[in-house]
Amino acid sequence: MTVTLSSSLPASVEAAPADSVLRPLPPRAVRWLLRAAFAVPYVVLALIAAQTTPTTLLGLTGNQATLDRATTALDGGVVQAIGQLYPLLSGVLLRFMPFGAQGAAVLGGVVAGVLLQLLAQDMRRRGLRMREVVAFTIALGANPLYAFVALNDLQAFLGIALFALAVVDMVRFFAWGDTQAGFRAGLALMLSTLVDPMGFVYLAIAALAAPVLDLARHEQRGIRRANVLVLVFPSVAVALSTAVLDTMVLHDPFAALRGTIDVSGQRLAGLQHLFATADGLLLVAMVVAGATLALLVGRPGAVALVVALFGGIIGGYAIGLVPVAAAGNVFVTMLSVAIAILPPVQGRVTSTLVVVLAVLQVPLAWAAAFQREVVVEWMHALVAVVLG
C-alpha cells in the first residue's frame, strides 16, 4: 500500500494540473462496456442468492439488518426515523429498494463492477504496467470476500467504494495540486458518512493520512492544513446540520449516533475469539502484506495508514458500526485503498515482487473466507441453488 505519488516537477515550478500528466481516458463506450462486463458475474451471483433459503445467520448480514432497522424506524414516523436511523440515506435506500435485500444485492453487484473498472482505469492512467493492473484487479475481484461484502452489505460497500475513490482524488489533490480532485474527494467522503456508519472513521483516517502525503505546493505556508479543511468541511457541515436537526426535534444532538453505537459483550467476545483463531492470523497477514507493499514501492510512511485502517475497522466492529454477521471488510477496504493510490513501480524486479504480492492476495482471501462461518454458509447456499 502507498499513500503518495511523487511529482517530478522541481519545487520552484507550479504543479501541473492532474489531467496533463494522466494518460487519456478510453472512449466512454469502452468504459461502460468494461463496467458492465465486470458487473455481470456479481449480478448473476445476486440473482442466484435471491433463490437461496434464508437462514438465521444470513439474516444478520448488513442488508437485512439495515432493512429491518429502516423499516422499524420509518414506519414509526419521520421524527422517530431521525433519531433511530443512522445513516439516514442508506436506510431510506434499503427501505424503498425494489425487492428489498435482494434488490440491494443486485445494486451492490453493479457497484462492484463499476468500482473494479474505475480502480483499474485509474491504475492504468497513473502509468502502472498492464500486468500490475491485471494482478491487482484480480486480487480484489476474484475472491469471495469482495463479492460477499458487495452483495450482502450495500451500505458498507458503498462506504468503502466512496472512501477508495476519495483517496484517489485526495492523493491527486495533495501531490499534484489538482483542486477539482480535492473537491471531489471532500464530497465523496461526505457521501460515505451519509451511507455508512463507518464514514466518519474513514474521514478521520483520511485526515490523519495528510502528513504522509507529498505536497505539490509545499512552499505555501499552511497549505497542508488548508487541503485537509477542503477534505473534511463537507462531512463536518453535514454532521453539524444533523446534530442541529436532532436537537430541534428530539432535544439530543447525538440521538442518531446513540442509536447506532452498540458496545456489547457479544461483539467483544467475538473479537477475542477472532484473534484466537486462524482468521485473526489471516487478518494480521493482510496488515503485513500492506506494510510490505508500502516498503516495496518506497513509501514507508504508508505503514501508518495500513495500521490505522486495520485499527479503525476493528474498532468500528467493536462499537457496533459494522454488522455482527460481517466478513471481508478489512480485506476489501485495505486492498481497495492500496489499489487506489499505488504509484508506478520502478524497476523490473520490484514490479515482479509487487505482482507476486498482489497474486498472493487471492489465496489469502479464499483462506480467510473459509474461516468465516457466515461466508461459508452463504457459499454453500449458492452452490445448493446451482446444483438444484
Automatic annotation (TrEMBL):
Keyword Transmembrane helix attributed: yes
Taxonomic superkingdom: Bacteria
Keywords: Membrane, Transmembrane, Transmembrane helix
Transmembrane annotation, as ranges: 32-50, 99-120, 132-151, 157-175, 228-250, 271-296, 302-319, 351-370
Protein name: Uncharacterized protein
Species whose genome carries this gene: Curtobacterium citri
Lineage, uppermost ranks: Bacteria, Bacillati, Actinomycetota, Actinomycetes, Micrococcales
